[in-house]
Amino acid sequence: MKASTPKKGFFYENSLSIVFITLFIATLLAQAITGWHEHNEELRQENAPAIGFAMYLQSGHFISATFENFESEFLQMALYVVLTVGLRQKGSAESKSLDQPEEVDREPKPSADAPWPVRKGGLILKIYEHSLSIAFVLLFLICWSLHFYGSWLDQNQEKALNGEPAVSPGEYLTEANFWFETFQNWQSEFLSVASIVILTIFLRQKGSPESKPVDAPNAETGK
Q: What is the pTM of this model?
């Protein structure tokens, strides 16, 4: 008689997402509080009245800073999901095998345990086959739009404090300030992806699914 497998608790089964969501909420709150104090200091230097925390959360300063970061993360993940379908890196744990078929490439087969779109088939299945990249692209576009909106609000507030006329969204889209904010975040994300792709060729982390086994040859490609 087989011994029964001990039942795992909710935290054990979901600990990775719980920890990261907790860290996200904590750091977002810390960003909001410190950004509020920084923004009020900037207003004080311009002889403008300070604003309350609730108003700060609606300000261009907060919206821009927040979604500027979200945007680059979702762009990184969208590109990573899409490019790893067809591109390879010899020796990297983040690449598919150079010459062996992969489980992720097999055609989906309906079964009782398969997700509903697989059992449904047709157009629903076709969309589901690409739903991860679609979700990341949509999240990127939403965050890019909110970053632009917040940055535009912040820029016009700064102009108002300096007695300068406001700019329209179309005018602001052509200004260097917004694109400087954008590209300084994008390049850091591309560097971080390149780093994990390359470093997993030579370095290991025992127990991590993002690493190859410790004794795997450097030339071995894939997990």
A: 0.89
